[in-house]
């Protein structure tokens, strides 16, 4: 490494230092003058040259060697190296000095025990402060003979101790492994069962508010309030890793039961789901029970809410069951339908009471109400997806009532109306047959909607909610009377009757009694019409009074004949001022036919 | 009524994911929409003679009213050309409110007579300006919030030359996207019947800000520059 150094131009050295200065310098460098002789100086010169020579040869050697040689080994070349070497040397010296002083202190301290007064002053100040004097003692030990037995014992002890320690650690590792294996087994079982639950179709989700716990949702998307909250249950792991529903879910299941009563007696009851025995209760069945129970409870809740506003339709609450009557007033025994939420744990509820005659009707009502609830959920979802009105003051935030009772009641009302109409017409039928009239009668029946093109459940339920229409035809010879009934859920909740009379007039009536009266008059009018047709000339019929009259004819006879019909009492009669022929369903009845009766009456002179 | 609005931007790669997340939040499926919007320039309402006199008496300064844009909107997804139009006028968003855009709007479904009346004014003063489509569009409803995600398309040149109210809906195929990156516009709105009723406005604000907190990681709802939504014509 060639170091380039730039020196300033050397000027004429005014190195005219006085002898005094030179002497001073020499003294500083070499020490006293006494030691310096010419011979020593010559020797020094020769040594310097040798040194220089040797340093240059050393350099070459160093160049041939690896450059990793310690800097301390090579002769110091630069002034820095010199100073470094000097510092290192001083360091070593200091350390050595320190060690020696410590050894001295040590021996002094030892000696303070033996000879305190003598040794005390030799102890250094620092040690005196740290350690009290006379505290270090010595003992002379003789070299102990090698004791083989003890050595063997020591070996044995040390080996045993080591083995014990190793065994302990091995034991704890094994225990950890076992615990880990147990954990793994539990976790595998837990996740295996959880996957089984998901595969069956249940939705597993995180629980809100509880981190690290999973739950299963078995509720319904459009339930609100309490039922939405209860639709989630946590899935916990028990000691074996099996999945367990949280406490209280799947127990105390309830179901909705529809009962039809006639008087005090139960004539029909819907089926309650049978609970599987406790042993067979798998996780999946428990979730299913919980879902069914939640659905029925929500259904009951909605029914109660609806019944509060449907009192005008005859719906009332008896105790905890919702009841309404379906049946004609005058039939004597009104059938009463009641909805009840019963607990399935009660054995006498579940015991099969099957075989009652109106079981199928009750079962149908229960099924219809469940279907209507799902339809109501669908409607709620659809309404939720419509653009909402702007927020305003008088917005009603309550949940609208779900129409579940109303369609059922509508249908039952319609059926009642049909039954009433048919019974009445049957009575008329008997009456007319006694009078030997020619007539035809078509019964009214329920027009079931065409379901062949109903593609989904929604279409079926919509068909259930349409207004019900039926009609019945009664035709006497050529006069036709049509009774038309329509039951709808909308305006004018109830059955609307309309009667088309034989002369084309259309009459709207409100209930069955009015209808009976109207039918009576209409049929009587029809009968009068037939009589008039057969009677020949001269006779005219007066519709309003059901009167047939003849003006004064050539034989000077004037005739008035009344026709009267009462279906309630089962009485048909034609009468003139003096004579009367009547037929009746109960009691006495004439044997003549209508035609004979007519000629009989007419022949009698007024 | 008063409308409170927040906007955001969805890159096309995340469109499906955002739709799914919103479906989970609202527990309902997105409703597909195809909105056609026509823009008309409506001149300012001129003052009648009496009002002018009263103002002259009072010596108040009459601010020169500017023409405004007026929109006619309809959703042609289901019924096509038969869907009735809705007339919408918007005002400048309110100045003091910085965390949402709050503006007064009027929206009215036009019946046939109203549409006729509008056509009359079109002949005289209201001028057709432009139209655009928003497709593909999806709509979610969450309590009182209306959430719309759509992509704005401009119609090809030449549409609207004839009477745009009666013309058939422009084909989506022929329209160009306004934002060439294909990003979607995300809009959340809540409407309050009466802007002066502070209780209702508080309710609306609470709902929309709560929704912003709810979707914080998914969608970044922002308030754009208020004056960029100015409906006046300079």
Short description:
Helix content of chain A is 45%, strand content 19%. Chain A has helices spanning 19-30, 38-64, 79-114, 116-119, 125-130, 148-199, 226-229, 283-309, 347-350, 359-384, 405-434, 457-464, 512-535, 594-603, and strands at residues 203-207, 210-217, 232-237, 243-245, 254-262, 265-269, 316-318, 321-326, 335-343, 439-442, 468-476, 479-488, 494-500, 506-509, 539-542, 547-550, 559-566, 571-575, 580-584.
List keywords for this structure.
heterodimer; A: 606 residues; alpha+beta; 5-stranded antiparallel sheet; 14 helices; 19 strands; 45% helix; 19% strand; rod-shaped; B: 234 residues; Hypothetical Protein Pfu-838710-001; 8-stranded antiparallel beta barrel; 4 helices; 10 strands; globular
Provide an overview of this structure:
Chain B: It holds the Pfam family Med18. Chain B: It is found in: Nucleus. Chain B: One of its GO terms (molecular function) is transcription coregulator activity. Chain B: Keywords: Activator, Nucleus, Transcription, Transcription regulation. The complex is a heterodimer of chains A (606) and B (234). The radius of gyration of chain A is 62 Å and the shape is rod-shaped. In chain A, the strands form four sheets. A five-stranded antiparallel beta sheet of chain A has the order 6-5-9-8-7. Chain A has 14 helices and 19 strands. With 606 residues, chain A is of the alpha+beta class. Helix content of chain A is 45%, strand content 19%. The two termini of chain B are 25 Å apart. With 234 residues, chain B is an alpha+beta fold. Chain B has four helices and ten strands. In chain B, strands 1-5-4-3-2-6-7-10 form an eight-stranded antiparallel beta barrel. Chain B has a single domain (2-220), classed as Hypothetical Protein Pfu-838710-001, CATH 2.40.320.10. The interface between A and B is medium-sized, with 12 and 19 residues.
């Amino acid at each position: 490494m060639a170091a380039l150094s730039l020196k300033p131009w050397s000027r004429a050295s005014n190195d005219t230092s006085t002898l005094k200065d030179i002497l001073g310098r020499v003294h500083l460098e070499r020490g006293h003058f006494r030691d310096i002789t010419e011979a020593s100086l010559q020797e020094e010169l020769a040594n310097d040259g040798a040194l220089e020579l040797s340093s240059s040869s050393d350099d070459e050697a160093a160049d041939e060697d690896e450059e990793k040689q310690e800097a301390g080994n090579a002769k110091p070349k630069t002034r820095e190296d010199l100073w470094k070497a000097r510092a290192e040397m001083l360091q070593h010296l200091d350390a050595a000095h320190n060690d020696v002083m410590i050894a001295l202190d040590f021996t002094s301290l030892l000696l303070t025990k033996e000879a305190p007064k003598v040794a005390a002053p030799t102890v250094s100040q620092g040690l005196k402060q740290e350690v009290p004097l006379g505290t270090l003692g010595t003992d002379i030990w003789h070299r102990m003979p090698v004791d083989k037995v003890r050595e063997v014992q020591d070996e044995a002890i040390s080996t045993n101790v080591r083995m014990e320690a190793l065994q302990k650690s091995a034991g704890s590792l094994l225990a950890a492994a076992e615990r880990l294996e147990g954990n793994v087994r539990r976790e595998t079982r837990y996740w295996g069962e959880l996957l089984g639950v998901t595969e069956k179709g249940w939705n597993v989700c995180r629980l809100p508010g509880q981190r690290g716990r999973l739950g299963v949702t078995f509720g319904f998307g459009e339930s609100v309030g309490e039922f939405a909250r209860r639709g989630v249950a946590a899935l916990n792991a028990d000691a074996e890793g099996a999945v367990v529903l949280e406490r209280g879910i799947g127990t105390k299941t309830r179901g909705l039961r529809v009962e039809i009563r006639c008087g005090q007696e139960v004539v029909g009851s819907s089926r309650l789901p049978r609970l599987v025995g406790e042993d067979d209760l798998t996780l999946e069945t428990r979730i299913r029970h919980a879902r069914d129970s939640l659905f029925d409870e929500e259904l009951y809740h909605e029914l109660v809410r609806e019944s509060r506003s449907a009192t005008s339709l005859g719906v009332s609450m008896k105790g905890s069951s919702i009841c309404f009557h379906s049946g004609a007033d005058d039939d004597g025994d009104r059938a009463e339908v009641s909805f009840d939420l019963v607990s399935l744990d009660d054995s006498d509820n579940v015991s099969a009471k099957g075989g009652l005659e109106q079981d199928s009707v009750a079962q149908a009502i229960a099924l219809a109400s469940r279907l209507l609830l799902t339809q109501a959920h669908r409607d709620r979802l659809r309404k939720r997806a419509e653009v909402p009105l702007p927020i305003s003051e008088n917005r009603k935030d309550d949940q609208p009532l779900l129409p579940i009772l109303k369609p059922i009641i509508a249908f039952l009302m319609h059926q009642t109306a049909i039954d009433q109409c048919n019974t009445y017409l049957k009575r008329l039928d008997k009456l007319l047959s006694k009078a030997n009239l020619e007539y035809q009668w078509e019964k009214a029946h329920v027009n079931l909607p065409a379901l062949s093109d109903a593609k989904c459940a929604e279409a079926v339920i919509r068909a259930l909610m349409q207004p019900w229409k039926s009609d019945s035809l009664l035709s006497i010879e050529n006069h036709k009377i049509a009774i038309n009934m329509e039951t709808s859920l909308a305006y004018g909740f109830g059955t609307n009757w309309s009667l088309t009379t034989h002369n084309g007039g259309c009459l709207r009536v409100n209930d069955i009694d009015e209808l009976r009266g109207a039918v009576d008059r209409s049929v009587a009018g029809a009968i009068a019409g037939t009589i008039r047709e057969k009677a020949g000339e001269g006779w005219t019929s007066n519709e309003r009074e059901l009167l047939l009259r003849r003006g004064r004819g050539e034989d000077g006879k004037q005739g008035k004949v009344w026709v009267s019909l009462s279906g309630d009492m089962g009485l048909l009669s034609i009468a003139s001022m003096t004579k009367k022929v009547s037929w009746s369903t109960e009691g006495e009845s004439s044997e003549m036919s209508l035609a004979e009766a007519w000629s009989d009456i007419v022949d009698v002179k007024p | 009524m008063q409308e409170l609005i927040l906007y955001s931007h969805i890159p096309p790669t995340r469109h499906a994911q955002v739709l799914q997340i919103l479906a989970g939040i609202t527990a309902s499926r997105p409703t597909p929409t195809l909105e056609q919007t026509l823009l008309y320039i409506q001149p300012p309402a001129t003052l009648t003679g009496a009002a002018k006199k009263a103002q002259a008496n009072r010596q108040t300064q009459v601010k020169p009213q500017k023409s405004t844009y007026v929109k006619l909107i309809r959703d042609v997804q289901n019924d096509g050309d038969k869907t009735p139009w809705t007339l919408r006028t918007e005002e400048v968003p309110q100045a003091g409110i910085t965390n949402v855009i709050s503006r007064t709007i009027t929206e009215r479904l036009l019946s046939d007579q109203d549409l006729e009346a509008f056509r009359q004014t079109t002949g005289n003063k209201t001028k057709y300006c432009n139209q655009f489509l928003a497709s593909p569009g999806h709509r979610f409803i969450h309590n009182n919030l209306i959430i719309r995600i759509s992509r704005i398309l401009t119609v090809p040149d030449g549409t609207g030359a004839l009477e745009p109210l009666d013309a058939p809906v422009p084909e989506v195929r022929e329209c160009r996207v306004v934002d060439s990156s294909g990003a979607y516009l995300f809009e959340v709105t809540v409407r309050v019947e009466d802007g002066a009723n502070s209780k209702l406005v508080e309710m609306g604000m609470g709902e929309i800000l709560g929704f912003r907190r709810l979707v914080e990681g998914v969608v970044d709802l922002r308030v754009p520059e208020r004056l960029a939504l100015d409906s006046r014509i300079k």
